[in-house]
Amino acid sequence: MLRQExxxxxxxxxxxxxSFTDNAEDVVKCQxxxxxxxxxxxxxxxxxxxxxxxxxxxxxxxxxxxxxxxVHLDTVPFAKSEWSHNPLGEVTDGRIYGRGVVDDxxxxxxxxxxxxxxxxxxxxxxxxxxxxCEEGDWSDMESYMNSNPKLPKFLFTxxxxxxxxxxxxxxxxxxxxxxxxxxxxxxxxxxLHVPNATNNVVPGKAVAMVWQDVHQQEGKAVHSSxxxxxxxxxxxxxxxxxxxxxxxxxxxxFFELMSKIKNSTVQESIGFPADEIDCKxxxxxxxxxxxxxxxxxxxxxxxxxRLCVHSCSSMISKMLMHICLNYDSNCYLRxxxxxxxxxxxxxxxxxxxxxxxxxxxxxxxxxxxxxxxYNSMLPNCVIFGPRxxxxxxxxxxxxxxxxxxxxxDVMKFTEILLRYLEKVWHNKN
Length: 429
Fold this sequence. Notes:
Blueprint: H1 4-15, H2 24-40, E1 44-48, E2 53-57, E3 67-72, E4 90-92, E5 95-97, H3 105-117, E6 126-131, H4 139-147, E7 154-157, E8 161-167, E9 170-178, E10 189-193, E11 205-210, E12 213-218, H5 233-241, H6 245-250, H7 252-263, E13 286-295, E14 298-306, H8 313-326, E15 330-337, E16 340-341, H9 347-360, E17 367-369, E18 381-386, H10 389-392, E19 404-406, H11 407-428
Parallel strand pairs: 3-6, 3-7, 7-18, 8-17
Antiparallel strand pairs: 1-2, 2-6, 4-5, 5-19, 8-16, 8-18, 9-14, 9-15, 10-11, 11-12, 13-14
Protein backbone atom coordinates (compact mmCIF):
# COMPACT_ATOMS: atom_id res chain seq x y z
CA MET A 1 0.00 0.00 0.00
CA LEU A 2 1.31 3.44 -0.93
CA ARG A 3 2.21 5.44 2.15
CA GLN A 4 1.89 9.18 1.68
CA GLU A 5 4.20 9.93 4.58
CA UNK A 6 7.00 7.82 3.09
CA UNK A 7 6.65 9.39 -0.36
CA UNK A 8 6.67 12.94 1.01
CA UNK A 9 9.68 12.25 3.25
CA UNK A 10 11.64 10.78 0.33
CA UNK A 11 10.84 13.81 -1.82
CA UNK A 12 12.10 16.08 0.95
CA UNK A 13 15.29 13.99 1.19
CA UNK A 14 16.37 14.76 -2.36
CA UNK A 15 14.95 18.29 -2.50
CA UNK A 16 17.19 19.06 0.50
CA UNK A 17 20.25 18.45 -1.70
CA UNK A 18 20.73 21.41 -4.10
CA SER A 19 21.56 20.20 -7.60
CA PHE A 20 21.92 23.04 -10.09
CA THR A 21 22.74 21.77 -13.57
CA ASP A 22 25.99 23.74 -13.72
CA ASN A 23 27.28 22.21 -10.49
CA ALA A 24 28.06 18.59 -11.43
CA GLU A 25 29.41 17.75 -7.95
CA ASP A 26 26.15 18.72 -6.23
CA VAL A 27 24.07 16.88 -8.84
CA VAL A 28 26.05 13.70 -8.13
CA LYS A 29 25.38 14.21 -4.40
CA CYS A 30 21.66 14.34 -5.14
CA GLN A 31 21.87 11.26 -7.36
CA UNK A 32 23.76 9.47 -4.59
CA UNK A 33 20.98 10.27 -2.10
CA UNK A 34 18.42 8.96 -4.58
CA UNK A 35 20.57 5.84 -5.08
CA UNK A 36 20.52 5.29 -1.31
CA UNK A 37 16.71 5.48 -1.24
CA UNK A 38 16.47 2.96 -4.09
CA UNK A 39 18.87 0.56 -2.39
CA UNK A 40 16.95 0.85 0.87
CA UNK A 41 13.93 -0.36 -1.12
CA UNK A 42 15.89 -3.39 -2.27
CA UNK A 43 16.67 -2.30 -5.83
CA UNK A 44 19.98 -2.40 -7.67
CA UNK A 45 21.49 1.00 -8.50
CA UNK A 46 24.59 1.90 -10.47
CA UNK A 47 26.13 4.85 -12.31
CA UNK A 48 26.80 4.85 -16.03
CA UNK A 49 28.11 7.30 -18.65
CA UNK A 50 30.89 8.60 -16.44
CA UNK A 51 28.57 9.04 -13.42
CA UNK A 52 26.26 11.27 -15.46
CA UNK A 53 23.39 8.76 -15.45
CA UNK A 54 22.09 6.67 -12.57
CA UNK A 55 20.21 3.46 -13.44
CA UNK A 56 17.80 1.76 -11.02
CA UNK A 57 16.74 -1.83 -11.74
CA UNK A 58 15.06 -4.76 -10.02
CA UNK A 59 17.41 -7.42 -8.66
CA UNK A 60 16.84 -9.65 -11.68
CA UNK A 61 16.21 -8.40 -15.22
CA UNK A 62 15.96 -10.83 -18.10
CA UNK A 63 16.82 -9.40 -21.51
CA UNK A 64 15.97 -5.88 -22.66
CA UNK A 65 13.62 -4.08 -20.21
CA UNK A 66 10.10 -3.48 -21.48
CA UNK A 67 9.73 -0.04 -19.91
CA UNK A 68 12.21 2.75 -19.24
CA UNK A 69 11.09 5.47 -16.82
CA UNK A 70 13.18 8.60 -17.37
CA VAL A 71 13.60 11.35 -14.76
CA HIS A 72 16.22 13.93 -13.85
CA LEU A 73 17.52 15.38 -10.59
CA ASP A 74 19.26 18.51 -11.82
CA THR A 75 17.40 21.82 -11.44
CA VAL A 76 17.55 25.45 -12.49
CA PRO A 77 19.04 27.82 -9.87
CA PHE A 78 17.13 29.72 -7.20
CA ALA A 79 17.69 32.88 -5.19
CA LYS A 80 16.72 32.03 -1.61
CA SER A 81 15.96 35.67 -0.81
CA GLU A 82 13.12 35.68 -3.37
CA TRP A 83 11.31 32.68 -1.84
CA SER A 84 8.65 32.87 0.86
CA HIS A 85 9.13 29.12 1.53
CA ASN A 86 12.26 27.02 1.97
CA PRO A 87 13.68 26.26 -1.51
CA LEU A 88 15.33 23.15 -0.03
CA GLY A 89 12.07 21.62 1.13
CA GLU A 90 9.02 22.53 3.17
CA VAL A 91 5.50 21.14 3.65
CA THR A 92 2.76 23.72 4.22
CA ASP A 93 -1.03 23.56 3.76
CA GLY A 94 -0.98 20.35 1.78
CA ARG A 95 1.81 21.41 -0.61
CA ILE A 96 5.46 20.43 -0.90
CA TYR A 97 7.71 23.41 -1.63
CA GLY A 98 11.25 23.31 -2.96
CA ARG A 99 13.32 23.67 -6.09
CA GLY A 100 12.78 20.58 -8.19
CA VAL A 101 9.47 19.51 -6.66
CA VAL A 102 7.74 20.06 -10.01
CA ASP A 103 10.78 19.62 -12.25
CA ASP A 104 11.64 16.78 -11.59
CA UNK A 105 12.51 15.40 -8.14
CA UNK A 106 9.03 14.49 -6.92
CA UNK A 107 8.47 12.51 -10.11
CA UNK A 108 11.65 10.52 -9.49
CA UNK A 109 10.34 9.49 -6.07
CA UNK A 110 6.88 8.64 -7.46
CA UNK A 111 8.52 6.24 -9.90
CA UNK A 112 10.42 4.46 -7.15
CA UNK A 113 7.36 3.99 -4.97
CA UNK A 114 5.23 2.84 -7.91
CA UNK A 115 7.57 0.03 -8.92
CA UNK A 116 8.08 -0.89 -5.26
CA UNK A 117 4.32 -1.20 -4.75
CA UNK A 118 4.11 -3.55 -7.75
CA UNK A 119 7.11 -5.65 -6.75
CA UNK A 120 6.22 -9.31 -7.09
CA UNK A 121 2.94 -8.48 -8.88
CA UNK A 122 4.27 -7.61 -12.33
CA UNK A 123 7.18 -8.65 -14.51
CA UNK A 124 10.52 -7.19 -13.38
CA UNK A 125 11.12 -5.66 -16.79
CA UNK A 126 11.83 -1.99 -16.12
CA UNK A 127 14.52 0.60 -15.53
CA UNK A 128 14.46 4.01 -13.93
CA UNK A 129 16.97 6.15 -15.81
CA UNK A 130 18.07 9.21 -13.84
CA UNK A 131 19.69 12.08 -15.72
CA UNK A 132 21.92 14.85 -14.43
CA CYS A 133 21.80 17.72 -16.95
CA GLU A 134 18.33 17.84 -18.48
CA GLU A 135 18.27 21.56 -17.72
CA GLY A 136 21.59 21.84 -19.54
CA ASP A 137 23.10 20.30 -22.65
CA TRP A 138 21.70 16.74 -22.32
CA SER A 139 25.21 15.32 -22.65
CA ASP A 140 24.28 12.79 -19.96
CA MET A 141 21.63 11.09 -22.06
CA GLU A 142 23.74 11.34 -25.21
CA SER A 143 26.55 9.46 -23.44
CA TYR A 144 24.08 6.94 -22.05
CA MET A 145 22.61 6.17 -25.48
CA ASN A 146 26.07 5.80 -27.03
CA SER A 147 27.06 3.24 -24.41
CA ASN A 148 23.71 1.39 -24.39
CA PRO A 149 22.67 0.33 -27.90
CA LYS A 150 19.80 -1.75 -26.44
CA LEU A 151 17.55 0.72 -24.64
CA PRO A 152 14.18 -0.29 -23.13
CA LYS A 153 11.53 -1.00 -25.76
CA PHE A 154 9.40 1.95 -24.73
CA LEU A 155 10.40 4.97 -22.65
CA PHE A 156 8.57 7.83 -21.02
CA THR A 157 9.66 10.86 -19.05
CA UNK A 158 7.72 11.83 -15.93
CA UNK A 159 8.27 15.48 -16.68
CA UNK A 160 5.35 17.38 -18.16
CA UNK A 161 1.60 17.64 -18.28
CA UNK A 162 -0.48 14.56 -18.99
CA UNK A 163 0.19 12.31 -21.98
CA UNK A 164 2.28 14.18 -24.53
CA UNK A 165 3.25 12.19 -27.59
CA UNK A 166 5.17 15.03 -29.20
CA UNK A 167 7.22 18.03 -28.18
CA UNK A 168 8.02 21.28 -29.90
CA UNK A 169 11.78 21.41 -29.78
CA UNK A 170 13.62 24.70 -29.44
CA UNK A 171 16.26 26.97 -30.90
CA UNK A 172 18.49 29.30 -28.87
CA UNK A 173 19.35 32.32 -31.01
CA UNK A 174 21.66 35.26 -30.31
CA UNK A 175 21.10 38.50 -32.19
CA UNK A 176 23.89 41.11 -32.15
CA UNK A 177 23.25 44.81 -32.71
CA UNK A 178 25.96 47.47 -33.17
CA UNK A 179 25.60 50.81 -31.43
CA UNK A 180 24.88 53.77 -33.71
CA UNK A 181 26.89 56.62 -32.16
CA UNK A 182 25.04 59.90 -31.67
CA UNK A 183 28.23 61.88 -30.96
CA UNK A 184 31.84 60.65 -30.99
CA UNK A 185 32.76 59.16 -27.63
CA UNK A 186 29.27 59.62 -26.17
CA UNK A 187 27.40 56.49 -24.96
CA UNK A 188 23.94 56.93 -23.54
CA UNK A 189 23.15 53.28 -22.73
CA UNK A 190 25.89 52.08 -20.38
CA UNK A 191 24.41 48.76 -19.29
CA LEU A 192 21.55 46.39 -20.17
CA HIS A 193 21.44 42.87 -18.81
CA VAL A 194 19.41 40.06 -17.28
CA PRO A 195 20.96 38.76 -14.02
CA ASN A 196 21.40 34.98 -13.93
CA ALA A 197 19.90 34.62 -17.39
CA THR A 198 18.91 31.08 -18.37
CA ASN A 199 17.82 30.14 -21.88
CA ASN A 200 14.72 28.25 -20.73
CA VAL A 201 13.48 30.78 -18.17
CA VAL A 202 11.47 33.97 -18.73
CA PRO A 203 13.56 36.61 -16.92
CA GLY A 204 12.22 37.81 -13.59
CA LYS A 205 14.62 40.78 -13.37
CA ALA A 206 16.33 43.13 -15.82
CA VAL A 207 18.67 46.07 -15.21
CA ALA A 208 19.91 48.98 -17.32
CA MET A 209 22.05 52.08 -16.82
CA VAL A 210 21.29 55.20 -18.88
CA TRP A 211 23.84 57.96 -18.39
CA GLN A 212 24.33 57.50 -14.64
CA ASP A 213 20.76 56.45 -13.82
CA VAL A 214 19.90 52.83 -12.96
CA HIS A 215 16.64 51.44 -14.39
CA GLN A 216 15.30 48.15 -13.08
CA GLN A 217 12.19 46.05 -13.71
CA GLU A 218 10.85 43.04 -11.85
CA GLY A 219 8.72 40.37 -13.45
CA LYS A 220 7.68 36.81 -12.84
CA ALA A 221 10.05 34.04 -13.90
CA VAL A 222 8.46 30.96 -15.50
CA HIS A 223 9.52 28.28 -17.94
CA SER A 224 10.07 29.82 -21.36
CA SER A 225 7.72 27.28 -22.97
CA UNK A 226 4.78 28.97 -21.22
CA UNK A 227 5.69 32.69 -21.27
CA UNK A 228 2.06 33.75 -21.06
CA UNK A 229 1.91 32.52 -17.44
CA UNK A 230 4.73 34.81 -16.32
CA UNK A 231 5.83 38.40 -16.71
CA UNK A 232 8.94 39.15 -18.75
CA UNK A 233 11.08 41.70 -16.88
CA UNK A 234 13.23 42.34 -19.96
CA UNK A 235 10.19 43.26 -22.03
CA UNK A 236 9.03 45.62 -19.28
CA UNK A 237 12.44 47.28 -19.09
CA UNK A 238 12.62 47.73 -22.86
CA UNK A 239 9.19 49.38 -22.75
CA UNK A 240 10.53 51.80 -20.14
CA UNK A 241 13.69 52.56 -22.12
CA UNK A 242 11.64 53.13 -25.25
CA UNK A 243 10.62 56.46 -23.69
CA UNK A 244 14.24 57.67 -23.79
CA UNK A 245 14.79 58.87 -27.35
CA UNK A 246 18.59 58.82 -27.23
CA UNK A 247 18.69 55.14 -26.17
CA UNK A 248 16.37 54.12 -29.01
CA UNK A 249 18.52 56.07 -31.48
CA UNK A 250 21.61 54.12 -30.39
CA UNK A 251 19.98 50.70 -30.98
CA UNK A 252 16.98 51.29 -33.27
CA UNK A 253 16.83 47.80 -34.75
CA PHE A 254 16.92 46.18 -31.31
CA PHE A 255 13.93 48.23 -30.20
CA GLU A 256 12.09 47.54 -33.47
CA LEU A 257 12.54 43.77 -33.10
CA MET A 258 11.50 43.83 -29.44
CA SER A 259 8.43 45.84 -30.36
CA LYS A 260 7.42 43.22 -32.91
CA ILE A 261 7.93 40.38 -30.43
CA LYS A 262 5.87 42.21 -27.82
CA ASN A 263 2.86 42.35 -30.06
CA SER A 264 2.65 38.59 -30.42
CA THR A 265 4.47 35.50 -29.20
CA VAL A 266 4.09 33.59 -32.46
CA GLN A 267 6.88 33.31 -34.95
CA GLU A 268 5.00 35.65 -37.26
CA SER A 269 5.75 38.44 -34.75
CA ILE A 270 9.25 38.91 -36.10
CA GLY A 271 7.90 39.33 -39.59
CA PHE A 272 8.77 35.81 -40.70
CA PRO A 273 6.26 34.58 -43.30
CA ALA A 274 3.47 32.60 -41.70
CA ASP A 275 3.31 30.19 -44.62
CA GLU A 276 6.76 28.93 -43.64
CA ILE A 277 5.21 27.35 -40.55
CA ASP A 278 3.37 24.05 -40.54
CA CYS A 279 1.16 24.06 -37.45
CA LYS A 280 -1.21 21.17 -38.08
CA UNK A 281 -1.15 20.34 -34.37
CA UNK A 282 -2.30 23.83 -33.44
CA UNK A 283 0.97 24.69 -31.70
CA UNK A 284 2.37 27.91 -33.08
CA UNK A 285 6.05 28.70 -32.86
CA UNK A 286 6.75 31.18 -30.07
CA UNK A 287 9.65 33.60 -29.65
CA UNK A 288 10.71 34.52 -26.10
CA UNK A 289 13.43 37.07 -25.14
CA UNK A 290 15.34 35.44 -22.27
CA UNK A 291 18.60 37.37 -22.03
CA UNK A 292 20.41 40.55 -22.97
CA UNK A 293 23.92 41.89 -22.49
CA UNK A 294 25.84 45.01 -23.52
CA UNK A 295 29.57 44.72 -24.18
CA UNK A 296 31.04 48.01 -25.33
CA UNK A 297 29.11 48.90 -28.47
CA UNK A 298 27.67 45.43 -29.03
CA UNK A 299 24.22 44.57 -27.67
CA UNK A 300 23.36 40.86 -27.68
CA UNK A 301 19.76 39.68 -27.40
CA UNK A 302 19.10 36.01 -26.58
CA UNK A 303 15.90 34.47 -27.93
CA UNK A 304 14.46 31.10 -26.96
CA UNK A 305 12.30 29.90 -29.85
CA ARG A 306 9.80 27.13 -29.10
CA LEU A 307 9.22 25.31 -32.36
CA CYS A 308 6.11 23.94 -33.99
CA VAL A 309 6.11 20.13 -33.82
CA HIS A 310 6.63 19.99 -37.60
CA SER A 311 9.56 22.43 -37.73
CA CYS A 312 12.77 21.46 -39.48
CA SER A 313 16.34 22.77 -39.54
CA SER A 314 15.84 24.52 -42.89
CA MET A 315 13.03 26.60 -41.42
CA ILE A 316 15.37 27.72 -38.60
CA SER A 317 18.00 28.71 -41.15
CA LYS A 318 15.44 30.84 -42.99
CA MET A 319 14.44 32.52 -39.73
CA LEU A 320 18.06 33.44 -38.94
CA MET A 321 18.54 34.90 -42.39
CA HIS A 322 15.31 36.87 -42.05
CA ILE A 323 16.41 38.47 -38.76
CA CYS A 324 19.84 39.33 -40.18
CA LEU A 325 18.45 41.00 -43.29
CA ASN A 326 15.50 42.83 -41.73
CA TYR A 327 17.03 44.06 -38.51
CA ASP A 328 20.59 44.94 -39.60
CA SER A 329 22.08 42.41 -37.20
CA ASN A 330 24.29 39.39 -36.87
CA CYS A 331 22.36 36.27 -35.93
CA TYR A 332 23.75 33.02 -34.51
CA LEU A 333 22.21 29.65 -33.69
CA ARG A 334 23.71 28.58 -30.34
CA UNK A 335 21.69 25.44 -29.70
CA UNK A 336 18.80 23.56 -31.25
CA UNK A 337 16.69 20.50 -30.48
CA UNK A 338 14.29 19.48 -33.21
CA UNK A 339 10.75 18.35 -32.36
CA UNK A 340 9.84 14.71 -31.71
CA UNK A 341 6.64 12.77 -32.31
CA UNK A 342 5.22 9.28 -31.53
CA UNK A 343 1.97 8.07 -33.08
CA UNK A 344 -0.90 8.49 -30.63
CA UNK A 345 -2.38 5.15 -31.74
CA UNK A 346 0.47 3.29 -30.04
CA UNK A 347 -0.81 0.73 -27.51
CA UNK A 348 1.57 2.15 -24.92
CA UNK A 349 0.03 5.60 -25.28
CA UNK A 350 -3.55 4.34 -25.31
CA UNK A 351 -2.96 2.57 -21.98
CA UNK A 352 -1.60 5.84 -20.54
CA UNK A 353 -4.81 7.58 -21.54
CA UNK A 354 -6.89 4.79 -20.00
CA UNK A 355 -4.96 5.05 -16.72
CA UNK A 356 -5.50 8.80 -16.55
CA UNK A 357 -9.21 8.47 -17.25
CA UNK A 358 -9.72 5.74 -14.62
CA UNK A 359 -8.10 7.79 -11.85
CA UNK A 360 -9.26 11.29 -12.81
CA UNK A 361 -12.69 10.32 -14.09
CA UNK A 362 -12.42 12.50 -17.19
CA UNK A 363 -11.59 11.83 -20.82
CA UNK A 364 -7.96 12.56 -21.64
CA UNK A 365 -6.37 13.20 -25.02
CA UNK A 366 -2.70 13.26 -25.97
CA UNK A 367 -1.18 16.64 -26.69
CA UNK A 368 2.02 18.26 -27.84
CA UNK A 369 4.42 19.42 -25.13
CA UNK A 370 5.18 23.14 -25.04
CA UNK A 371 8.65 22.49 -23.70
CA UNK A 372 11.22 19.91 -24.66
CA UNK A 373 13.21 17.35 -22.73
CA TYR A 374 14.86 13.96 -22.90
CA ASN A 375 11.90 12.62 -24.85
CA SER A 376 13.01 14.63 -27.87
CA MET A 377 16.26 12.69 -28.18
CA LEU A 378 15.45 9.21 -26.82
CA PRO A 379 13.89 6.81 -29.35
CA ASN A 380 10.24 5.80 -28.90
CA CYS A 381 9.89 8.11 -25.90
CA VAL A 382 6.93 10.25 -24.79
CA ILE A 383 5.95 12.41 -21.82
CA PHE A 384 3.73 10.88 -19.14
CA GLY A 385 3.53 13.64 -16.59
CA PRO A 386 1.92 14.50 -13.26
CA ARG A 387 1.02 18.14 -13.68
CA UNK A 388 -2.63 18.88 -13.08
CA UNK A 389 -2.51 22.68 -13.20
CA UNK A 390 -5.27 22.88 -15.80
CA UNK A 391 -7.62 20.81 -13.67
CA UNK A 392 -7.03 22.90 -10.61
CA UNK A 393 -7.11 26.16 -12.54
CA UNK A 394 -3.84 27.12 -10.93
CA UNK A 395 -0.52 28.33 -12.29
CA UNK A 396 2.34 26.09 -13.27
CA UNK A 397 5.16 26.41 -10.73
CA UNK A 398 7.89 24.87 -12.88
CA UNK A 399 11.14 26.92 -12.65
CA UNK A 400 9.30 29.54 -10.63
CA UNK A 401 9.82 31.15 -7.23
CA UNK A 402 8.14 29.00 -4.54
CA UNK A 403 8.00 25.98 -6.85
CA UNK A 404 5.52 23.57 -5.31
CA UNK A 405 3.17 20.68 -5.89
CA UNK A 406 0.01 19.52 -4.12
CA UNK A 407 0.58 16.37 -2.08
CA UNK A 408 -2.77 15.10 -3.33
CA ASP A 409 -1.45 15.37 -6.90
CA VAL A 410 1.66 13.41 -5.96
CA MET A 411 -0.50 10.57 -4.69
CA LYS A 412 -2.90 10.85 -7.63
CA PHE A 413 -0.19 10.46 -10.25
CA THR A 414 1.53 7.64 -8.38
CA GLU A 415 -1.80 5.80 -8.61
CA ILE A 416 -2.01 6.59 -12.34
CA LEU A 417 1.50 5.23 -12.81
CA LEU A 418 0.59 2.08 -10.89
CA ARG A 419 -2.41 1.44 -13.12
CA TYR A 420 -0.39 2.02 -16.23
CA LEU A 421 2.37 -0.42 -15.32
CA GLU A 422 -0.21 -3.04 -14.38
CA LYS A 423 -1.92 -2.61 -17.76
CA VAL A 424 1.32 -2.93 -19.70
CA TRP A 425 2.35 -6.17 -18.04
CA HIS A 426 -1.11 -7.64 -17.74
CA ASN A 427 -1.41 -7.27 -21.48
CA LYS A 428 1.88 -9.06 -21.97
CA ASN A 429 1.01 -12.05 -19.77
